[in-house]
Design a protein that fits this description.
Layout: H1 7-15, E1 20-27, H2 28-31, H3 35-42, E2 48-54, E3 59-64, E4 74-75, E5 81-86, E6 89-94, E7 102-103, E8 111-112, E9 116-118, E10 126-128, H4 138-142, E11 148-158, H5 173-185, E12 196-201, H6 208-220, E13 239-246, E14 253-260, H7 274-281, E15 289-290, E16 316-322, H8 331-346, E17 351-356, H9 358-361, H10 363-367, H11 376-389, E18 396-398, H12 410-444
Parallel strand pairs: 12-14, 12-16, 16-17, 17-18
Antiparallel strand pairs: 1-11, 2-3, 2-11, 3-5, 4-7, 5-6, 8-9, 9-10, 13-14, 13-15
Length: 445
């Protein structure tokens, strides 16, 4: 469930309310343009920001600190206000009759005084009557276009900044150099393997390809875009791709390969097939294998690698999860990830979670990426994704991928490189386990 409010608009609204963030509760195009759907998602939640959108391009709505209900009564709120956006600028209309600031009607959406109602009478329309407890002009607020194309309600949540970071991280340029050198100098503990293979798995749009592009950018010294990445509802990656990294433009290959997969999707027969995951983990799939969501690769197929060596197998799995969507992860997607995790566990492959878009999820981190381990909210998200995916919090690593930037940022690089270091450490554990297994077999013989 993605927000129609841009991050810039969210920041502008939040700047009126203090150190807060917005959590999307209700989206009419998904849950329904009805009073019942609105109340089911939003009753007893507060404070809230309600936003209407129309075909004329207007973005407008209201704020109340009072919880919604279906009592039919007016509720007092001296801090309520209506607003509209004039491009990126917020025009604010404070309540003039606080005793009648909000009305709790069961067959409507958000109902501000008698001045503005979004989803009026369970229809995708606005009721607008300026001057009734709020003063505004209809033309300025919504351009007299009373048909809604969308309605969203967000809960306003406090942002907590912890006194001291809960994970230790060094943000100096020397640390960045040290991390780069450690990755370049790394050698797997098993002589038959020269490069660690890390499989990236995650929902469509979580940032798998962007993560590879970001790591590649760090080693190239500028922002690059080798893997196809972007915003789409279906996977932009349609092939199994293995991406090798180089130290600089002419540099030698680094000891890590990222394997990018098709995005996971909720529905059956769409997105990455779970049987294909097994083939990837065991090293059967060739590079550039074209995914077919309705039919996994068969062991008799021409391109099937029948006897993969250890170097062809996956040595670490990284689940990529969007910090902005952890709380609204669909049940079916969670079940798919659970099924994958069980397969990975059976093969004894170590797993970690890359939590992407931490800067978009938390204004503290937007201000300064160094706040990532001082943000109570990011800590909560890491705990939640840990519980949902069944991995310890120590295996959850927050990152900020490069998306809009043209130049590198040393702090983002440190987060990205730290994630790669964790992958190499986890792969070492895997190789140690395999070596132990072989030495036990030899001892028995």
């Amino acid at each position: 469930m993605s927000s129609m409010l841009t991050s810039s608009q969210q920041k502008t609204i939040c700047s009126q309310l203090g150190r807060v963030k917005l959590q999307l509760l209700y989206k009419a195009s998904i849950h329904g343009f009805t009073g019942a759907a609105f109340h089911q998602r939003c009753d007893n939640r507060c404070p809230t920001v309600s936003v209407g959108y129309n075909a004329s391009g207007y973005v407008f709505g209201g704020y109340t600190k009072q919880p919604f209900s279906q009592s039919g009564q007016y509720v007092h709120d001296d801090q309520a206000f209506l607003f509209t956006f004039n491009e990126e600028k917020l025009l604010k209309y404070p309540v003039t009759g606080p005793a009648n600031a909000v009305r709790m009607m069961s067959n409507c959406g958000p109902y501000f005084g008698e001045a503005l109602v979004l989803v009026n009478g369970s229809k995708a329309v606005v009721y607008s009557n300026p001057g009734n407890y709020y003063n505004f002009t209809a033309a300025e607020m919504h351009g007299n276009d009373l048909n809604l194309t969308e309605c969203e309600v967000y809960e306003v949540e406090e942002h907590t900044q912890l006194e001291r970071p809960w994970r230790t991280i060094t943000w100096e340029s020397e640390k960045r150099k040290e991390l780069i050198q450690s990755i370049q100098m790394y050698k797997p503990t098993v002589s038959s393997v020269s490069q660690v293979r890390v499989l990236l798995i995650g929902p469509v749009g979580a940032g798998k390809s962007s993560f590879f592009n970001s790591i590649n950018s760090v080693f190239r010294g500028h922002v690059t875009s080798q893997a196809i990445a972007g915003c789409s509802t279906t996977s932009l990656t349609t092939q199994f791709r293995t991406y090798s990294l180089k130290a600089g433009r002419e540099g030698k290959p680094l000891p890590i390969i990222f394997c990018d997969t098709m995005g996971l999707e909720e529905s059956t027969g769409a997105g990455l097939d779970i049987d294909d995951i097994s083939s990837i983990l065991k090293g059967h799939l060739p590079d550039r294998y074209q995914f077919n969501p309705s039919a996994p690769l068969h062991s008799e197929a021409h391109s099937y690698r029948k006897s993969p060596a250890l170097k062809d197998k996956i040595h670490c799995v990284a689940y990529v999860s969007d910090a902005c969507k952890v709380s609204i992860m669909p049940k079916k997607l969670e079940e798919k990830l659970d099924a994958i995790r069980r397969k990975v566990n059976l093969l004894g492959i170590p797993q970690l979670v890359l939590l992407t878009r931490v800067d978009e999820a938390c204004p503290l981190v937007t201000e300064d990426v160094r706040n990532v381990y001082k943000s109570g909210y990011i800590k909560e998200m890491m705990q939640e994704v840990s519980a949902r995916l069944g991995v310890p919090v120590s295996c959850v690593v927050p990152v900020k991928n490069y998306s809009e930037e043209l130049e590198l940022d040393p702090d983002c690089d440190i987060l990205l490189l730290s994630a790669v270091i964790q992958m190499l450490r986890f792969a070492d554990n895997y190789f140690d386990e395999i070596s132990d297994r072989f030495s036990n077999i030899e001892t028995k013989e």
